[in-house]
Amino acid sequence: MKFCPSCGNKIIDNAKFCNKCGEKISDSYTKTVSENIKEKRDIVGSAKKSSSSKLLFNVVLFVLFVSSIFYYFATDRTKEEEIIDNQPQIIGSVEYPESRFDMRNTNYTVEGDYLVLPLDEVLDKKFVRFVYKSSLRDIPLLAYVNEDGSLVTSISMCEPCNSTTFHIKGDELVCNSCGSTWELNTLKEVSGSCGKYPPDPIPSKVEGNKIFISIKSVENWRRRV
After folding, report:
1. Which of 95, 104, 135, 154 could disulfide-pair with 199, CB 3.0 to 4.6 Å?
2. Is the whole model's pTM more than 0.70, yes or no?
3. Within 13 Å of residue 85, how many CA atoms lie on the same side as its CB?
4. How many CB atoms sit inside 10 A of residue 154's CB?
5. Using CA atoms in the order 133, 135, 136, 141, what is the torsion angle rounded to 10 degrees?
6. How many other C-beta atoms lie within 10 A of the C-beta of residue 116?
7. SS3 letters across 101-120
8. 36 and 129 part of one domain
9. How far apart, in whole angstroms, are the C-alpha atoms of residue 158 and residue 217?
């Protein structure tokens, strides 16, 4: 059986014209039932393949987008983390007691553009505090050895509550005034109303038995709140 190429009406095999629309029929334009079915199947199959390809592309695009967002947040380090990660390791490891471990006062000297602390004193006391006196203001600083044995130097201030003293308790740094706490190794917030503002780290380096802190870095420090 054949069909009219114009209107699709069924026509007899030897017909010269379509008995419905009058279209002239030639053998080269007529199609058998099996040919018609095959063509329709090919069209449907092609459409399904195209739809599947688009779906796969959209799924891959979505996965890449989610992965990029995850990577961004997983690798987006805070300024505090970047400074601490680059601090020198000066000892194997340190364990602090679960009871309160207070900071102790120390003195610094000036060598060129640097404040200098004696390394052996910091290793002995483990947690020290000193005040840099510039011509414009006094800036409290602290230095301690974290549990990984790395040196941490920072501004000794809990800015929201204005406290300038802290203590260590186990693996946490604690503000003496408001009680806010931070991880000792990373200064990440643990708890407290001032937790978003840990003591602001200042880069330092170690050469021989001396800890060097840039005076410019200290003088350029500005409160965050």
Report:
1. 154
2. no
3. 7
4. 25
5. -20
6. 16
7. EECEECCCEEECCEEEEEHH
8. no
9. 18
Residue whose C-alpha is closest to residue 108's, from 118, 93, 98, 95: 118
Same domain, 6 and 93: no
Q: What is the residue type of 97?
A: P
The per-residue pLDDT for range 192-208, each reduced to its tens digit, is: 999 999 999 999 999 99
User: Which residues, 6 or more positions from 18, have their beta carbon under 8 angstroms from its beta carbon?
Assistant: 4, 6, 7, 9, 11, 25
pLDDT in tens, 82-132: 999 999 999 999 999 999 999 999 999 999 999 999 999 999 999 999 999
51-61 confidence digits (pLDDT tens): 777 788 888 77
Looking at the domain assignment, is residue 193 inside a domain?
A: yes
The token pair that represents 113 in the structure block: 């553009």
Residue 159: how many other CB atoms lie within 10 Å? 16
What is the rounded CA–CA span in Å between residue 152 and residue 127?
10
Q: Any idea how long the chain is?
A: 225
Q: Could you tell me which residues come within 8 angstroms of residue 12 by beta carbon, excluding any fewer than 6 positions away? A: 2
Query: What are the C-alpha distances in Å from 103 to residues 80, 100, 130, 164?
Result: 20, 10, 10, 11
Residue 40 is part of which domain span?
Answer: 2-74
Domain total in the chain: 2
- Contacts for 68 with CB less than 8 Å, ≥ 6 apart: none
Instruction: Count CB-CB contacts under 10 A for residue 51.
Output: 10
CA 218 vs CA 75, 138, 215: distances in Å: 27, 10, 5
Residue 179 within any structural domain of the chain:
yes
